């Protein structure tokens, strides 16, 4: 079974919508530079509304360790997603407290320090575009031979292309933001529903039981 994450949630309404149509996890962005920035209190309320069966992922970009841990605790997230050129020591320290989705760009794949970090069982790789949330898909065929086993995939995914991405790379999970929105931070219900449906169907075809 492939897992599906809807990222950039900024309201309880969109959290409930995404959970009701089958999202396995929700992403709450705490990076101050993001147009989808959410307050920790809103994220916590949304997490309580959807219940513990849905993952709540706090998303951070080049933020200090104390800030990440403080916001993750305040929002009561179940995992932390880390973007940016971070040291292995930093990633491991966060992983002491929370499961980590470590976001990598295609250029990071194969680097020794990155591979060393991924040996930590609390760290799962996610491959994303250099500009997160930009809506530009990666070249999946070019990644076929270097895509880490068990990794998640992000980067310009939406209802129209997620099936092909799953067919080529067979990721453990898929994550989408911009192609599911009416405007930054506001989800389009039809696109969210179509994305999850397409991912599930592709998963059934690519991961036979």
Q: Helix-strand pattern, N to C?
A: EHEHEHEHEHEHEHEEEH
Q: What is the CA-based Rg, rounded?
A: 16 Å
Question: How many DSSP H or I helices?
Answer: 8
Largest pleated sheet: 8 strands, parallel, barrel
CATH architecture: Alpha-Beta Barrel
* Regions with little confidence, pLDDT below 50 for 5+ residues: none
Strand content: 15-25%
Task: Please provide a written account of the structure.
This protein is an alpha/beta fold and 209 residues long. α1 (12-20) runs parallel beside α2, α2 packs across α3 (65-75) and α7 (162-169) packs parallel to α8. It contains 8 helices and 10 strands. It has helices spanning 12-20, 40-50, 65-75, 88-95, 112-117, 140-143, 162-169, 189-206; strands at residues 3-6, 25-29, 55-61, 79-83, 100-104, 123-127, 152-153, 173-176, 181-183, 186-187. 36% of the residues lie in helices and 20% in strands. It has a single domain (3-206), classed as Alpha-Beta Barrel (TIM Barrel). It is globular. Strands 1-2-3-4-5-6-7-8 form an 8-stranded parallel β-barrel, surrounded by 5 helices. The model has no long low-confidence stretch (mean pLDDT 94). It comes from Deinococcus aerius. This is N-(5'-phosphoribosyl)anthranilate isomerase. Pathway: Amino-acid biosynthesis; L-tryptophan biosynthesis; L-tryptophan from chorismate: step 3/5. One of its GO terms (molecular function) is phosphoribosylanthranilate isomerase activity. InterPro entries: Aldolase_TIM (IPR013785), PRAI_dom (IPR001240), RibuloseP-bd_barrel (IPR011060), TrpF_fam (IPR044643).
């Amino acid at each position: 079974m492939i897992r599906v994450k809807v990222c950039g949630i900024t309201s309880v309404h969109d959290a409930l919508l995404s959970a009701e149509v089958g999202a396995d996890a929700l992403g709450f962005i705490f990076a101050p530079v993001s147009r989808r920035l959410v307050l920790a209190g809103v994220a916590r309320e949304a997490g309580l509304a959807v219940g513990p069966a849905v993952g709540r992922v706090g998303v951070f970009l080049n933020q200090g360790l104390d800030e990440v841990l403080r916001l993750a605790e305040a929002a009561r997230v179940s995992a932390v997603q880390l973007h940016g050129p971070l040291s292995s020591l930093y990633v491991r320290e966060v992983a002491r407290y929370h499961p980590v989705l470590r976001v990598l760009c295609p250029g990071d794949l194969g680097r020794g320090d990155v591979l060393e970090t991924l040996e930590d069982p609390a760290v799962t790789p996610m491959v994303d575009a250099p500009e997160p949330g930009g809506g530009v898909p990666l070249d999946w065929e070019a990644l076929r031979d270097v895509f880490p086993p068990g990794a998640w995939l992000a980067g310009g995914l939406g209802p129209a292309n997620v099936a092909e991405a799953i067919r080529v790379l067979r990721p453990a999970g898929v994550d989408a933001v911009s192609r599911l929105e009416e405007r930054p931070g506001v989800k389009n219900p039809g696109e969210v529903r179509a994305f999850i449906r397409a991912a599930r169907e592709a998963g059934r075809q690519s991961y036979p039981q």
